[in-house]
Amino acid sequence: MDVHHVNLTISAVSASQYPNTQFPEIAFVGRSNVGKSSLTNVLINRNGYARTSSQPGKTQTLNFYNIEDKLFFVDVPGYGYAKTSKANREKWGHMIENYLTQRDQLKGVITLVDGRHAPTSDDVSMHDWLKYYGIDILTVATKMDKIARGKWNKQASVITKTLHLEAMEPLILFSALTRQGKNEIWQWIEGRM
Ligand code: GTP
Ligand code: MG
């Protein structure tokens, strides 16, 4: 999709604030700092629209981005970030769980893993959990510009094995710097609208 109009509709802290529309929604999940906001910016062709930061855990709300009045991108707070109170973490956890399991408008979840490393146990739990709930998942390995092209195949198979991806489960190698993978990710999204 060629995106011209994007609007951060709401940074929601509770379900009552979610947009009251029937547009399909695509959520982005992954560990803090993995590159969710950066991927969002590449998909919408806007540098710095979704806030990126070298400080992990910056995104703390469910951010709904209205894309062309056709769909919402939902930037989900990163998991695996400990530098906040336990009560706070639990509160976020419940909101996110409820959103991911109960939101009718949610058509798919893009889960990001760091392409440089094997997925962590948090990544594996998140993937298993989404799968258990029958959620349509696209796995994206980010930061591929940081590893040599000759290692991509090996990395892809490490990710496939560690996350127990099945043959039909898609994995896309992506870089926010080179924008590789952008078109394939859009294709997956458009297939769910
Ligand atoms: P939280 O909102 O804290 O959960 O983080 P996030 O997942 O939104 O990550 P964000 O997009 O803010 O990126 C974190 C850091 O990684 C930033 O410094 C980005 O510039 C960097 N980064 C993200 N994607 C890439 C990439 O593909 N390549 C490189 N080299 N750096 C990236
Ligand atoms: Mg972010």
Automatic annotation (TrEMBL):
Gene3D superfamilies: P-loop containing nucleotide triphosphate hydrolases. InterPro entries: G_ENGB_dom, GTP-bd, GTP-bd_ribosome_bio_YsxC, P-loop_NTPase, Small_GTP-bd. Its cofactor is Mg(2+). Keywords: Cell cycle, Cell division, GTP-binding, Magnesium, Metal-binding, Nucleotide-binding, Septation. The keyword Cell cycle applies. Transmembrane segments: none annotated. Residues 22-193 form the EngB-type G domain. Necessary for normal cell division and for the maintenance of normal septation. NCBIfam families: GTPase_YsxC (TIGR03598), small_GTP (TIGR00231). Belongs to the TRAFAC class TrmE-Era-EngA-EngB-Septin-like GTPase superfamily. EngB GTPase family. This is Probable GTP-binding protein EngB. It comes from Lentilactobacillus raoultii.
